Inverse folding.
């Protein structure tokens, strides 16, 4: 299937931007540039949007709560943003979180975990797990039903949702009903066929992804830790039912689909959806890409069904 026409138009807007020299680039400067690359898009109106502090693994973290309606005791969806473990924040994914809250009929809480290289692995997964536990423990004061809990994340955020699921399975809680993973990072190897086939020209490049891993993993052997590379976990049984969305023109496509197969082999219910004409990051383009909007609607329906 060819590249989606609307996605092709998006790529055309980025064609004149030179890729930085990742052997020399400063992570903080690149983060500032990347996080402000796209203009803010007005999102769905919410009954309540508020910033709050949640517990991380080593101190408080910023988070943002999105309540779609006045209905009491709505379910809880914890969201982890993408950005290669290096970039992204509450604002870059504000629009997506609003859409998820509206379409899932759940309270979404987006967590601003600590970023690499200032806070390398395992800071991010430990932050995300601690924040999820805190949110469940404080569900009553937040006005949510902590017994109806799901996770979602895109790219590196999908990786972190998987880390939380693994930790929850190991430590017997909290109980997670469903996880929704948009084109997740699942292995540090960077050697799949799609990684080579779509190495350049599709927004996320092979060079960029390798650089992300270099910032995130700073000690020998960390690539084999299943909290970094969930594809390398010895066992995946016990993880929650999963919706996993991949993009046809994404370097991470094959590792995401291989992980979906590994989950199935472990007995985990999985709905895998490849969005053929899409690129990495497309789900955030739902306001102006029809294929992305439909994929988001499909994924939200899975979450809504699991949380009812």
């Amino acid at each position: 299937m060819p590249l989606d026409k609307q996605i092709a138009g998006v790529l055309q807007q980025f064609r004149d931007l030179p890729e930085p020299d990742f052997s020399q680039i400063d992570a903080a400067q690149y983060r500032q540039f990347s996080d402000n690359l796209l203009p803010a898009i007005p999102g769905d109106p919410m009954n309540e949007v508020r910033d709050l502090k949640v517990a991380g693994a080593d101190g408080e973290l910023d988070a943002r709560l999105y309540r779609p309606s006045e209905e009491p005791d709505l379910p809880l969806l914890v969201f982890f943003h993408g950005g290669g473990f290096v970039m992204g924040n509450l604002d870059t994914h504000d629009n997506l979180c609003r859409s998820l809250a509206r379409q899932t009929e759940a309270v979404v809480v987006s967590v601003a975990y600590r970023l690499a290289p200032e806070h390398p692995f395992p800071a991010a997964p430990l932050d995300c797990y601690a924040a999820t536990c805190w949110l469940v423990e404080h569900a009553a004061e937040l006005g949510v039903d902590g017994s109806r809990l799901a996770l979602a994340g895109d790219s590196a955020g999908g990786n972190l949702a998987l880390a939380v699921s693994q930790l929850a399975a190991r430590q017997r809680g909290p109980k997670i009903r469903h996880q929704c993973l948009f084109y997740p990072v699942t292995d540090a190897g960077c050697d799949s066929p799609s990684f080579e086939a779509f190495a350049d020209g599709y927004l996320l490049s092979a060079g960029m992804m390798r650089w992300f891993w270099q910032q995130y993993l700073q000690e020998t052997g960390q690539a084999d830790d299943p909290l970094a590379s969930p594809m390398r976990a010895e066992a995946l049984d016990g993880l929650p039912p999963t919706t996993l969305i991949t993009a046809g023109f994404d370097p991470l496509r094959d590792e995401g689909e291989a992980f979906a197969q590994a989950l199935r082999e472990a007995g985990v219910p999985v709905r895998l959806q490849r969005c053929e004409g899409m690129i990495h990051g497309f789900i955030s383009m739902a306001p102006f890409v029809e294929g992305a909007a439909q994929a988001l609607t499909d994924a939200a329906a899975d979450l809504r069904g699991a949380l009812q």
